[in-house]
Amino acid sequence: MSHYATLGIHSDASPEEVKTAFRRRARESHPDREGGDPELMAEVNRAYAVLSDPARRAEYDRTGSSVLPDSVEVEARNFLLQTFKSFLDNEDVLGATGRLFAENQSQLVKSQFETKNRVARLQKKSGRVKSKTGENLFQLLLDEQIRNLDEALSKIERAIQVVGKCQEMLKDYEQEPTQQHGSFNQLMSAQQSAWHSRFPNQK
């Protein structure tokens, strides 16, 4: 049962109608009332929590799910964390991470461009093939392909935002240069000085 059905309202109900329906259904299903149902009351509360929140309601209307996706910031943080994890053994962690993000951004922008062009080409074919018997299977297939590409494009654009946010977050980090080569050179220089002090005539 949908959240709208739970509250007994239509999908185009106004916020005030949602609130009124919730109060009515809450009174009817409250466990303290005769004939009340705690499980139904829980469903009513869940329905109102989603439909009274504009963002959650929009997501529910679009996907049928009342669970909001992670924000770009949260997704970027997780991606940056996983990337750091994969480069733990790399001497230049920040450099390797930055190069990976730049490569990802380039690939995503290329995919975005190609997908947009694909959608544009398919849209030009819309309405050009007609059926004499009624149902237009070609148009149905075309519309489905365009919808799929639009969904793919939305995911690509989201990924571009996430990688861009990762690049911004990476600017807050700095890495000290590795001391390995410097320490080795200092050690060799000290050994050479000690050798010349003991054997001044040796070169």
Topology overview:
Layout: H1 3-7, H2 15-29, H3 38-51, H4 54-63, H5 72-86, H6 93-125, H7 137-170, H8 180-198
Helix pairs in contact: 2-3, 5-7, 6-7
Using brief descriptors, characterize the structure shown.
203 residues, 2 domains, mainly alpha, Helix Hairpins
Can you walk me through this structure?
It is a single chain. By secondary structure, the chain is mostly helical. It has two domains: 3-63, Helix Hairpins (Orthogonal Bundle); 72-176. Helices cover 71% and strands 0% of the residues. It is built from eight helices and no strands. The protein has helices at residues 3-7, 15-29, 38-51, 54-63, 72-86, 93-125, 137-170, 180-198. Helix 2 (15-29) runs antiparallel to helix 3 (38-51) and helix 5 (72-86) packs across helix 7 (137-170). The radius of gyration is 31 Å and the shape is flat.
What is the mean pLDDT? 86
User: Would you identify the regions where 5 or more consecutive residues have pLDDT less than 50?
Assistant: none
Give the overall shape.
Answer: flat
Major sheet description: none
Number of helices: 8
Please give the alpha-carbon distance between the first and last residues.
Answer: 91 Å
